[in-house]
Model the fold of this input.
Amino acid sequence: MRTDKPISTIIFSLAALAFLSASPFVLPVYWTLILTEILIMGLFAMSFNLLLGYTGLLSFGQAGFFGVGAYATALLISRGGNSLFLCLLISLSSGAAAAGVIGYFCVRRDEIYFAMITLAFGMMLFTVAHSWIKLTGGSDGLPLMSIPSVRMFGIEFSLFNPTNMFLFVLSVTSACILFLWRLVRSPFGLMLTAIRENKQRLSFVGAGVQNLRLAAFVIAGALAGVAGGLFSLFNSMATPDFMHWGFSARPVLMTILGGSNIFFGPMLGAAVFFGLEQVITNITENWMIFLGLILTPVVIFFPRGILGTLVHYLFKKKKIKP
Amino acid sequence: MQVERWQHERAFDFARRKAAGKVKPPALQMAADPGPGRGSGPIYDLRLKVAVESFIINLLNGLSWGMLLFLISVGLTIRIIWGPGYHVVDPPAILSGVFSIFNQTYPVYRVFLVVAGPLIGLALWSFFQLTRWGKIIRAAAVDREMAEGIGIRVPILFTAVFALGTWLAAIGGALAAPHQSLAPSMGERIIIESFIVVVSGGMGSFPGAFVGALALGLFESFGTVFLGSAQMAVPYILLATVLLIRPHGFFGREL
Done:
């Protein structure tokens, strides 16, 4: 059940895009950094939501692919790579490759078993990053000494400038979101929704449920890899923490917060998550308790999530009576 | 073509379910649906009742998100009250000290744990297998709708089971306190370990949980000796291997 209307979502996202492109020239630098982080984590959460919201698979190892992407970019740059395009391409393909191998074993399981087995594989990736000190630097992480610049129209834009970084992240994120938008509306995307709704019925009509699930898993892994690559560029650092299950819980929280049944839900969830963190950390360091206090009623009384509930009340006032 | 046909089917299915008042978002659906063939419609009608009750019902719907988040909030309360640092607890005087066996010294408290663990497990198993209450709980877990049909008040029953589970977890924590150092983050590790134990042992199986816990403990100990820095992955390798070979754990029922 999708609650968003295509036309209003397109208008909304174009407006948001215009608004966001202008924002770094208006907002203080600090908030530009926060917005960049929100965009990256939002992309991560949306890649996760392709699995949860559309395919009905709860992956608890999504951070593994995020981390693989982050390390791919960090390793390439520390080995002297100097092309952003290549960085993102490597992050994307390594995330997809890792998801392909792991997904092959995972997609045959359902619900809690799927969640547990993805958790297991994600933590194995974490252990590799944590223990293979020669390659990854262990728990110290892998710092990025330099960040390649964007060359456009013959001018070089340094990504050390927060505004340039934000615009770069915005363009990559928008491209990925556009891809996701096309994807979930394609016949393939409908098949994924069909798996969520009734996978038995779908396999009766002749669709290969496991292969479709694997494809969704690989795409989600690839996009998580891109988000990871962006995050390591943004942080100038890749650490094993990116792969820990605690990091996998973040997109879950964001998706539940924003709403898993609506396309932009996870992105709004990310915005609320980091916005709350910023606002509440000023008051107390234990900001997670407020997150818990807000999340619990959202889960219980507004299972559509914040954006899902808003859209539902704004656009679907006439309720269908049971 | 396939998709078009399916879309039609889905619209049909959707309308039918909507008419039956059973349309739910997938996150809740996943948490609420205990398995194929077991509907959970009536539970949702209850939601309009009292807010508190619906809160508890949702908490108890398997591994619902609310529960997890609620527990995270509880964990953070602990952090606020007792601070983020480590604490050390001494065992009671009667259980402190060591005794020697075969020229090796061994702490008394560990022996006490070795005895107390299986005893509590056995007591719990007898409660579920031999008493009337245990039977009622098992019946409600197997077929919720049917249990409600014969007059068992499942929501209240599950609240009690949840309380029992919490009580047991607290006992476990109290027993573990002198054995390891206390910190607000200790729950983070134990929750994953208990997930691994329960899922690899087989959900809803006491022998499974026992065997799973033993296996996890042994693998971790030997992993520390033989595998060095890779031992961190041992519990996860165990979990993945078990789930790949037996999808529902050692003792899990194959559905």
In short: The first strand of chain B starts at residue 98 and ends at 101. Chain B touches chain A through 55 residues (CB under 8 Å). The first helix of chain B runs from residue 2 to 19.
